[in-house]
């Protein structure tokens, strides 16, 4: 089977839309036919795919419970094919927080799931104060004050390191390529 015939599923959980943007970017790099599905929609059977990537955003220190529930229900299937996980957060705006050991939110999440992703990407998210509700704006401003981030509520900053995302996708391509040779 050539890599062009391979199928990959990207399952995403997005709070404000940035995770879907990253999912689409990854899909364009993959050497496979890619389906992108929200965690809120029916998830196709993993048996139809040669690989799977799950991407999820963090809000207030947590990934959505739906993501954890899906993973813990399907971890055996996830582990049986090439797989990867990426997490989007504002804490990962700082390069040192893009490593699991230095990212308390990702570390806590990975400790609570039974799946052990073969590849993990921790990407900076999008700070978009104007798009947030009043509550979110206040909470994120408080978090940014504590973490010495921007607090001007007119601020829009994309912290995603697209080279890092491209490397993540290339590493996943290597996983699905090597599977075809085994």
UniProtKB/TrEMBL annotation:
Residues 8-182 form the Flavodoxin-like domain. Pathway: Porphyrin-containing compound metabolism; protoporphyrin-IX biosynthesis; protoporphyrin-IX from protoporphyrinogen-IX: step 1/1. It catalyses: protoporphyrinogen IX + 3 a quinone = protoporphyrin IX + 3 a quinol; protoporphyrinogen IX + 3 a ubiquinone = protoporphyrin IX + 3 a ubiquinol; protoporphyrinogen IX + 3 a menaquinone = protoporphyrin IX + 3 a menaquinol. It is a peripheral membrane protein. It comes from the Bacteria. Signal peptide: none annotated. Transmembrane segments: none annotated. It is an enzyme of class 1 (oxidoreductase). Binds 1 FMN non-covalently per subunit. Keywords: Cell membrane, Flavoprotein, FMN, Membrane, Nucleotide-binding, Oxidoreductase, Porphyrin biosynthesis. It is found in: Cell membrane. One of its GO terms (molecular function) is menaquinone-dependent protoporphyrinogen oxidase activity. GO terms for biological process: protoporphyrinogen IX biosynthetic process. Catalyzes the 6-electron oxidation of protoporphyrinogen IX to form protoporphyrin IX; under anaerobic conditions uses menaquinone as an electron acceptor, under aerobic conditions uses ubiquinone as an electron acceptor. Belongs to the HemG family. This is Protoporphyrinogen IX dehydrogenase [quinone]. It comes from Apibacter mensalis.
């Amino acid at each position: 089977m050539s890599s062009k015939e391979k199928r990959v599923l990207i399952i995403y959980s997005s709070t404000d839309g940035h995770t879907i943007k990253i999912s689409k970017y990854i899909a364009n790099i993959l050497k496979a036919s890619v389906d992108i599905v929200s965690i809120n929609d029916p998830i196709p059977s993993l048996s139809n795919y040669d690989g799977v990537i799950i991407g999820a955003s963090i809000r207030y220190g947590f990934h959505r419970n739906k993501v954890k529930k899906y993973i813990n229900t399907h971890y055996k299937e996830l582990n049986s094919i090439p797989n990867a996980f990426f997490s989007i957060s504002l804490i990962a705006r700082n390069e040192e927080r893009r490593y699991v050991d230095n990212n308390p939110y990702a570390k806590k999440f990975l400790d609570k799931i039974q799946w052990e992703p073969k590849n993990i990407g921790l990407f900076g998210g999008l700070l978009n104060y104007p798009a947030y509700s009043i509550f979110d704006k206040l909470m994120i401003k408080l978090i940014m004050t504590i973490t010495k981030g921007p607090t001007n509520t007119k601020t829009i900053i994309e912290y995603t390191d697209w080279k890092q995302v491209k490397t993540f996708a290339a590493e996943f391509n290597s996983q699905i390529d090597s599977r075809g040779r085994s």
